[in-house]
């Protein structure tokens, strides 16, 4: 069955009766009640406790969880995460990006100073990260955050358990320029050019403008190194 509300077309197979009804309501401008969308979760008998942690060191515990996510064939990008920032006056925003490193000094990601997230971090340098590894199902008990990193932990996999996620909160600081420079030039040249062309969160005439600019820079830097823009950095 194919529907296209708001110009988005998707194919739904074996559409549940209640979902088909909600789609019809949505098409008529009614509010969609998603209350029936739920899974059965298990009780305290399978809850994850603090004693199940691989380590009381939060970064070592995260490394254990991350390794498990990387090895899971059903997770395409284990380092994909949601970064939530906030303006100084309390207006939040969130987006997906990729983790590029972690250690005792924290979590590393690279961004554009001129983007919305870059400007918000400049004015309010506190943020949160969420890693959502849906195929790794866990049931979390009261002691799950005992290691200092709130999230899910090790255990057997069962379809009825809640999806694994890890939450991180804290202060964001800029990485040293040499480290940002090194990362920028480790990217494929096409990605470097793309970073130069795409001035994130800025208004452009149309997509053709980006295509032409990209072609110009491909010609310009065909035989030379792409200089890192001052607005591309790491946090």
From TrEMBL:
Pyridoxamine 5'-phosphate oxidase N-terminal domain sequence ranges: 75-220
GO BP term, example: pyridoxine biosynthetic process
Keyword vocabulary terms for this entry: Flavoprotein, FMN, Oxidoreductase, Pyridoxal phosphate, Pyridoxine biosynthesis
Residues spanning the membrane: none
Keyword Zinc-finger among UniProt keywords: no
Pathway as given in its UniProt record: Cofactor metabolism; pyridoxal 5'-phosphate salvage; pyridoxal 5'-phosphate from pyridoxamine 5'-phosphate: step 1/1; Cofactor metabolism; pyridoxal 5'-phosphate salvage; pyridoxal 5'-phosphate from pyridoxine 5'-phosphate: step 1/1
Source organism, top-level taxon: Eukaryota
EC number, as in UniProt: 1.4.3.5
Coiled coil residues, start to end: none
Keyword Ion transport on entry: no
Catalytic activity: pyridoxamine 5'-phosphate + O2 + H2O = pyridoxal 5'-phosphate + H2O2 + NH4(+); pyridoxine 5'-phosphate + O2 = pyridoxal 5'-phosphate + H2O2
A GO molecular-function annotation: FMN binding
InterPro entries (alphabetical): Pyridox_Oxase (IPR000659), Pyridox_Oxase_N (IPR011576), Split_barrel_FMN-bd (IPR012349)
Cofactor: FMN
Role, per record: Catalyzes the oxidation of either pyridoxine 5'-phosphate (PNP) or pyridoxamine 5'-phosphate (PMP) into pyridoxal 5'-phosphate (PLP).
Quaternary data: Homodimer.
PANTHER family per the UniProt record, alphabetical: PYRIDOXINE-5'-PHOSPHATE OXIDASE, PYRIDOXINE-5-PHOSPHATE OXIDASE
Protein family membership: Belongs to the pyridoxamine 5'-phosphate oxidase family.
Protein name: Pyridoxine-5'-phosphate oxidase
